[in-house]
Amino acid sequence: MFFGGEKGKIKSIVEKFFNKAGFSVSIEVLSPEENIMQARIKTDEPKILIGQNGQTLNEIQHLLRIIIKKSYENPIQFDLDINEYKKQKMEYLKETARTVADEVFLSKKDHEFEPMSSYERRVVHMELANRSDVITESIGEGEARRIVVKSKQ
Asked: What class is the 88-151 domain?
């Protein structure tokens, strides 16, 4: 589906975007995984580009997806990470989910997470999916949607 020049083309688009925005970054475009082109950015100004709870990062990724989409006839999935923020956040979410599940199992009291994005909810659901002692459920609507972890006993 992807050809050798795709990584170079994506890197060029991302480089141009950040240069025009006035940010000095180093860019690595990884080989596609599961049909997703992934760009990893390193910068000395991560707080500005990531924003509170990754909001600015999500907005930048959204803009880059639109720009990249216009450069290709076929739809292309694109994921952006800055200074490994997403990677670290996903590891933190997985660890938190396991800890919460253990607490719920021992206390038999439900635990309700703070609202989170659909991707973050999916990470928590997937992390706990194989556990036989707890179940997860998404509740709420829109930006208030969150996960509840419940004991099966």
From this structure: alpha beta
